[in-house]
Write a structure and sequence with these properties.
With about 210 residues, the protein is an alpha/beta fold. The chain is built from 8 helices and 6 strands; from the N terminus they run ααβααβααβαββαβ. The strands form 2 sheets. Strands 1-6-5-2 form a 4-stranded parallel sheet, sandwiched between helices. A two-stranded antiparallel sheet has the order 3-4. α3 crosses α4.
Length: about 210
Amino acid sequence: MERKGSKVCSTCWGSLSSVALTDPIYLLAVDRLMVQGDLDGLTSLWHFEKGGTLQSIVHALKYDGMTSLGVELGRKLGERLRAEVPVEKYDGVIPVPLHRAKCRERGFNQSDFIGKGIQEVTGLPVLQNVLHRKRFTKSQTELNAAERKMNVSGAFDLHKGFDVSGRSFVLVDDVITTGATIEACAATLKGHDARYVLAASVALAG
């Protein structure tokens, strides 16, 4: 049933291509993200296709200010998380942060709203003040995999006074392409002795 007030029709949601645990794009992403040992798992909903319906939804969220779409996406991601992992083992959801300049420009962080949707379904608190992006980085869009990794290396840090030692988190972003950004966030958490970090995204892009 379509949720009352949804900005996206049920037919459009149904047209999206779901990511299966046996999909080559998922298996490749798992191999790539786990190699450094900072991420311990991956949950993702859909394949991201340029020019497709999902790109239009994500674009409307990020650039047209339709933040309610972020919450809808988060609810759907929360349902997948609840089906795939024991969510009770996690201490909270950490949205991948934007730099404060980018956040001022856009007016919000889209991952915060995805996190809110996850919270509605799983009950996990959204922890928006754990990580911050301490330096401005250029857009990853036009960079190759090696350039993306270098671009975000060392770009994140913990906010002062927050202890992640021995705790487990779901680290959430809208779209994972090479995974450089979410891996850099995970490296920061693991560098401060976080126990377990699961990456969660609305989509995987090849």
